[in-house]
Amino acid sequence: MQEQTPSTQPSNARKRAQIRRRLRLRRYRYVSLSRRVWMRRAVFIAGALLVGLTAVGFAETANEAQNVYYAILKFSPWLPLVMTPVGFAVLAYITARWFPAAAGSGIPQVIAARKSSDNVHRKSLLGWQTTIAKIVMTAFALVIGASVGREGPTVQVGASVMFAVATFAGLGRQNGLVLAGAAAGIAAAFNAPIAGILFAIEELAKAFAGRINDIVIGSVVISGAVSWLILGNYDYFGEVSVRIVDTQDWFAVPICSIVGGVLGGLFSVGLITVSRKPPRFIALLRQRPIAFAAGCGFIVAVLSIATAGYASGNGYIETRASLVFGQAIPWWYGFAKFATTLLSSASGIPGGLFSPSLAVGAGIGSMVTPILTFTDPRALMLLMTVGYFAGVVQSPLTAVVIVMEMTSDKNMVIPLMATALFASGISRLISPEPLYHALARGYFASTFRIRGTPDVAPPAVSSS
């Protein structure tokens, strides 16, 4: 046998490297020309386009619904005392009876759907019936004066649209497409593409999934472009230009972190407690869910009338006036909005937390501006908005980027990041489990079957 000399060994190594390169090139060409790969790409593009169109239509519907409530208040300021509790009861009944997966914000449902290994269970959470019901009932909730937003529901709607397109195309694995649809929903709802990507990674996936990164980013780009073409390249709240100038201004950061983190944590643990682990007296009330929803609606109506409508709706107008124009909000606004948002979310009706939470943060920030006179009021409200929102969702990076993209303010990056990070940490001391993931347990296959979907078998929930 001929022995290889040192001079022939490099030559053999080069040949092996050339063979590996040819094999990789051949595999790449096969994948590029694969019919299934191009089918998935076509499904992804079509789904992202539909998510963008649906999100835009949802936004316009929600805005009109909000205007209808203000018109009702103007016509008869006392009508909400009857309309709101009756509306809450009707929504709670319809949701519990026919569309249990449409309750709340929709983000817990998306988390549960991604963790489920059963396609029937996923369909019960993201089916087209649920999507239509979510849009219609969220708009109706705004008409009757509930303190809800349409941004969280847009996450579920986006995931549902992408899931429906993938199912129609016969694609077996839809986990990445569901995540991409949810991210596209956030991007289109806020005109905040980077926030959509970060929300998918930080909140929904709780990890960076490299293999689905491309479709998440791509769906955000396509959905955001659709929204941009129809609605224009707008800033959700308008352009805000404030900055922290002096050293003393930095004292506002720990103050907003503590106040925002504590209040956000209290909201989170309060909603989790009422929804998942209610004390005895609340558990007795929740045994009659329709009456419980009506009671929540009555309190919301009283607070709405007492505050001339401030405590109802998504809070967009008040938040924009404070952040963009520096307009002072009544001192009681933040706490009134806190209460109505908690009651609306706990009642079991459809509706999201994003916009109301931002409004609560702005209201609390406006309340402390007479105390912290050394800081620009708009900067203070911006810091408190981020602090409270990060305390509620415990996703600090998402909170910072959402607020930055909504206001086009690049001057407050470091103060906002510091506030969100500390507030999120303080919130975890009060509510150890993140809000959306705690609520998602109610939509796992084994639990959701008990809550009104007897046709769904209780398969094991995957840990992926």
Task: Give structural notes.
The longest helix has 41 residues, at 35-75. Helix 5 (119-126) runs parallel beside helix 6 and helix 14 (316-325) packs across helix 16 (354-368). The protein has 464 residues and is mainly alpha-helical. Helices cover 71% and strands 0% of the residues. The chain has helices spanning 8-33, 35-75, 80-97, 107-115, 119-126, 128-143, 151-168, 175-190, 193-204, 213-231, 252-276, 280-286, 289-306, 316-325, 333-346, 354-368, 377-393, 396-407, 413-430, 435-440, 445-448. The chain is built from 21 helices and no strands. It folds into two domains: 36-231, Orthogonal Bundle (Clc chloride channel), CATH 1.10.3080.10; 247-447, Clc chloride channel (Orthogonal Bundle), CATH 1.10.3080.
Structural topology:
Layout: H1 8-33, H2 35-75, H3 80-97, H4 107-115, H5 119-126, H6 128-143, H7 151-168, H8 175-190, H9 193-204, H10 213-231, H11 252-276, H12 280-286, H13 289-306, H14 316-325, H15 333-346, H16 354-368, H17 377-393, H18 396-407, H19 413-430, H20 435-440, H21 445-448
Helix pairs in contact: 2-6, 2-7, 2-8, 2-10, 3-13, 4-5, 4-8, 5-6, 6-7, 7-8, 8-9, 8-10, 9-10, 9-18, 11-15, 11-17, 11-19, 13-15, 14-16, 14-17, 15-16, 16-17, 17-18, 17-19, 18-19
